[in-house]
Amino acid sequence: MTKGLNGDVSSWVRFRLKDLGYLYSGLSGKSGDDFNQDDNPNNKGFIPFTNIAINTYLDKKQLGTVVIEDNEKQNQVKKNDIFFLMSSEGYEDIGKSAVLIEDLKETYLNSFCKGFRLTNKNSDASFINYLLLSDIYRQQMLVEGKGFTRINLKMEKVNNFSILIPPTKKEQQQIAAYLEAKTNTINNIVNNIETQITTLKELRKTLINEVVTGKVKVATYSQ
């Protein structure tokens, strides 16, 4: 039997995403000239596509800027919003999600993305995001993508997407905290290994350079 962190999942409850919150659109009516202008007084924060594609949690250090005029009506992101990639050049990224767990000053969302805002008070955004990133749900989401030169995901498909979650927010938070701790440990190990690999590659390069230029003398052998 499949088990959750604190036992089996027989008590978990099935919901469609639209039963837990609502989707909202990213930026509309923008051209390339509106983004990343230097020193424009109307610059606001902007979440690029890549920030969602490569992260589990939105990284506030990976924001761009977009010009937003005072009279514009655009959707601002909020803490605990979950973001979906709704359009992609390939199937790998379509439907990929990431969650915002920090407060951001007036920030907006990529037009290729949708934001999902929880209204159900018994739901934890970090847990739902981890759930959506698991293989079983990623595969189900990928099936919903359609297209040839560009893959697109319809809002209707995301709204009706079915998930199974623990009945209490506390249990969801416990699972999310466990996953965060374990993944942080794994990420630290990976980073340490990558650092060691980089150091060893540099050592190899230095050794070769010093030997072939005569800076290091090596013993020669005759048979």
Structure description:
The chain is of the alpha+beta class and 223 residues long. The chain is 35% helix and 21% strand. The chain has helices at 17-20, 49-54, 125-133, 135-144, 155-159, 169-212; strands spanning 3-4, 7-8, 13-16, 21-25, 43-47, 64-67, 82-85, 87-88, 97-99, 107-109, 113-118, 151-152, 162-165. The strands form 5 sheets. It has a 4-stranded antiparallel β-sheet with strand order 4-11-7-9. A hairpin with a 2-residue loop joins strand 1 and strand 2 (7-8). The protein is globular and about 75 Å long. The N and C termini lie far apart (67 Å).
Question: What structural keywords apply?
Answer:
223 residues; alpha+beta; four-stranded antiparallel β-sheet; three-stranded mixed β-sheet; 21% strand; globular
What fraction of residues sit in β-strands?
Answer: 15-25%
**Total number of beta strands:** 13
The secondary-structure class comes to alpha+beta
Q: Which residues sit in consecutive blocks of at least 5 with pLDDT less than 50? A: none
Helix content: 25-40%
The termini sit apart by 67 Å
- The mean pLDDT is 91
| Secondary-structure element pattern, one letter each | EEEHEEHEEEEEEHHEHEH
What gyration radius follows from the Cα positions, in whole Å?
Answer: 23 Å
Shape: globular
Major sheet: arrangement of strands: 4-11-7-9
